[in-house]
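For reproducibility, we list the full input for the guanosine-5'-triphosphate complex.
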Amino acid sequence: MAVLTPPGRGAVAVVRAWGPGALEAVDAAFRPMRGASLADTAPMRPRFGRLGAGLGDEVVAVVLDGDPGGVDVQCHGGSAAIDLVVRALAGRGVRLVEASAFLRSAVPTPTAAEAWDDLARASTLRTAEILLEQAQGALDREVTAIAGGGEDAASRLDALIDRGRVGVRLVDGWRVAIAGRPNAGKSRLLNALAGYARAIVAPTPGTTRDAVTVRTAFDGWPVELVDTAGVREAEDAVERSGVERALRERERADLTLLVLDRSRPLEPGDAASPAASTLIVASKADLPAAWEPAKVFAGVPFVVVSAEAGTGLDELGTAIARALVPAPPPPGAGVPFRRAQVERLVGMRPGAGRP
Ligand SMILES: Nc1nc2c(ncn2[C@@H]2O[C@H](COP(=O)(O)OP(=O)(O)OP(=O)(O)O)[C@@H](O)[C@H]2O)c(=O)[nH]1
Ligand SMILES: [Mg+2]
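The corresponding predicted structure, in tokenized form, follows.
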């Protein structure tokens, strides 16, 4: 047997028992509310009953159809309830293995097993869809086709490796830092994007000291947003370490949102052409403008927002998504989603491995 639901608290957990004797073992432990034994129940018909020592947990048992057959026991999601079920079945001779071991035995290829593993950790529908396609063989099929040769094999391999840049981020996502001068409106922007008051907002410059993070998603791409201290010559030691931390976060981030207050005159250096992985955000658009973003940042992507009025936020989300993933994988495409897979593909390039 294996606990198929991921560790942690959930409403329902699924314990699957399979293999020779599994049905008999679960049957011996399962106490139906009424009616026949599981062995005499049609496959896929849910049965309600109790399972486990003492009163046991209230569970739904489903005899599985197909090969390998088995029984799914759906119990309550807390670790105590899972423990009760696992112990009762172990007492009937059913051995517990890791869910990943089950997946490896039940799916056709190691890549598919890895995709099922990652799928359980996907946080958005969009990333789950891509991983599900890999679980169903999209990557394996593409690799087989490329290995079979053909004149476009080399370019298909390059495209596949390129899609790995998105693939390896599907579970953990991207990191986006919010940077800028004190009082520029960074924290309020973080809150507006997160949808709740995650960070402290105050009119005093130098309010944010620590890096404040929130997990969200833009166009279905998971992102960890990091609000940082406003960068200036800090007066006290705490603020100074906040500023150092802010600079480190900018280096670590995949993308930096450089927030510039549009209601106040720019300061020297603000209009300098930004680094490649920077998106200019002109903030406080509900207030009268002190400068014209289109003039100052001609040819550079910028977005005008007001966290106060809620304007420009959708546009900003789209711009962030586009900056992080300029070319989303087409539906059904093979996408390598682990670094080791990408490395194996790089090794398939003609000439790879030779000096
Ligand atoms: N009118 C208006 N005020 C805003 C807007 N965004 C932020 N503010 C105000 O600007 C002040 C500073 O906002 P914060 O979000 O705390 O600024 P910050 O960049 O995080 O500042 P530090 O943490 O000190 O670096 C607060 O009084 C906010 O209410 C906006 O879109 N419109
Ligand atoms: Mg702040």
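The chain has twelve helices and twelve strands. The two ends are 49 Å apart (CA to CA). Both points were considered when choosing residues for closer inspection.
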